[in-house]
Amino acid sequence: MSANLVDARGSLTATIFLGIGLMAAIDEIVFHQILAWHHFFDRSTLAISLLSDGLLHSAELLMLAAGFYLFARLSRHQAVSRPHAWAGLLFGAGGFQLFDGIVDHKVLRLHQVRYVDNLWAYDLAWNGFGVLLLALGYIIWRRARASERKRGVSSL
Known about the structure:
Strand content: under 5%
Number of strands: 0
Radius of gyration: 18 Å
Helix content: over 70%
Shape: elongated
Number of domains: 1
Distance between the termini: 18 Å
């Protein structure tokens, strides 16, 4: 690829992986380990809960490794679309956050944000943050697409 040819789709894809891995790492480090509010699977013994955290950590590392590999490849070819990369990072992080908040917390009931009597504020903040990240990613992505259309470039 030439220095003038960016890969919008590749930039978006690589950083979606990075966003998922980054948000999973923040969740695991802050909420599972530092604050000890929950484990990935809280409906069994402590040993199973810790095992589930280890499996989450493994998946997070795979996402980060895949994202870094794809991003480094794009960077080596000078093909990174910065706006698409930022949008992808926010899409991945927000998507992970919202999936965790809706599917893991409410549908599957693997764990809650925090085990307190009045959970709605925690759920609102958790899911609201995910929606905010997705909305910011969408705004950046739409602006990148509009900019491409002005220049006559087509991508995602």
